[in-house]
Amino acid sequence: xxxxxxxxxxxxxxxxxxxxxxxxxxxxxxxxxxxxxxxxxxxxxxxxxxxxxxxxxxxxxxxxxxxxxxxxxxxxxxxxxxxxxxxxxxxxxxxxxxxxxxxxxxxxxxxxxxxxxxxxxxxxxxxxxxxxxxxxxxxxxxxxxxxxxxxxxxxxxxxxxxxxxxxxxxxxxxxxxxxxxxxxxxxxxxxxxxxxxxxxxxxxxxxxxxxxxxxxxxxxxxxxxxxxxxxxxxxxxxxxxxxxxxxxxxxxxxxxxxxxxxxxxxxxxxxxxxxxxxxxxxxxxxxxxxxxxxxxxxxxxxxxxxxxxxxxxxxxxxxxxxxxxxxxxxxxxxxxxxxxxxxxxxxxxxxxxxxxxxxxxxxxxxxxxxxxxxxxxxxxxxxxxxxxxxxxxxxxxxxxxxxxxxxxxxxxxxxxxxxxxxxxxxxxxxx
Length: 431
Ligand code: UD1
Hints:
By secondary structure, the protein is of the alpha+beta class. The protein has 14 helices and 23 strands. It has helices spanning 21-30, 47-58, 86-89, 99-106, 125-133, 164-175, 190-202, 232-245, 259-268, 307-314, 333-340, 370-382, 395-399, 403-409, and strands at residues 2-6, 11-16, 38-41, 61-66, 71-76, 108-112, 137-141, 144-148, 156-158, 179-184, 205-209, 212-217, 224-227, 247-252, 271-274, 278-283, 293-296, 320-325, 344-348, 351-355, 364-366, 386-390, 414-417. The protein has a four-stranded mixed beta sheet. The longest helix has 14 residues, at 232-245. The structure holds uridine-diphosphate-N-acetylglucosamine. Uridine-diphosphate-N-acetylglucosamine binds next to α1, α5 and α6. Uridine-diphosphate-N-acetylglucosamine (UD1) binds at residues 22, 25, 93-94, 122-127, 161, 163-166, 187, 191, 304-305, 327-329, 431.
């Protein structure tokens, strides 16, 4: 795809975000834990979700669109096979979360290494450590993992890092193992807690403590219905869009999930109003706000998935800013592209130093992952002239239902088209 952004339009109005992609993906995977019907609402229409639905359909499920809009009824048509289709699994990182549920259901499983945005080495050691602790014997052959389990058992598992995916993988698997599993240093993201809520409705007992999850597994899990939480990363992206373009934007979302961003925007000098189910930002645009220090950390820290968008914002701040990325190894691909637009950014390992400039100018830039692509679109809103964001692998649509349409609804001027001069390749889903 190609997005052409005519810069300099201020943004005004209200917008409601879709359901959280990063919650919907593990919730869909969790439907494998039961043969009963599961009804999921507020599932976003994004590329990664469509891929996960295709995978489920290879694993014995029928995923029927239902009412209201963005709802699906997930039914079992045949018992799950033990192996997930490699060509689909390789499209997105979250597919690896199917490994544990498949072992729990079938006693064995085969899955390939997942794909993933090019944002650093993306190991799965914590997933494997958790599944092994639960009694799975796992061997790897090239990119393929084979697991076998005569009988899974509960365990106490400490994660060296609060990995979102590993926490979800272990929680789903343990939900189907009678007895008490404890995950220490567990991820505490809202998406992890959303999965816990679904598993509780399905019949597992889950207690959430600070940094710990205690799972009382059940021999069988039942069908239920569940509504996915709003997408905090999409919400944050639109708030930063309002900040960088200038204007008055209200985003309907769950403000509790966006405290780190709101506090940072407030610190930079924006007017932020928090309501029960919305956040309003009022901004005078480039040059009206100061720089600051941002450190991307596990939740409740500043979200790494909003770090690229924040870099675009800081490129137009008064003074010097720094961004430290502590979650992913290399997540500054947007820096060189922003520099093409006139930003002054120096990257040194995990830290970027940004000297604010008065203006960015439109040019042709490339988005190499979902959030970096979004960051460049936001930079284009504030840049002089025309910015073209080439997104040849369709990364942006993997994570946002309709980024250009939503911004246009607020007054932006963005044209979305197939990038004819770019070779279109199948989206290699990666986040
Ligand atoms: C999820 C999100 C992604 C977000 C990330 C961190 C989904 C679908 N994606 O990804 O958008 O950027 O959380 O908030 O929910 N790690 C290991 N070993 C492992 C697993 C992870 O070392 O077995 C490391 C990773 O390399 C990375 C860090 O832990 O440096 C965070 O990874 P993790 O929290 O697992 O992210 P994902 O679940 O893949």
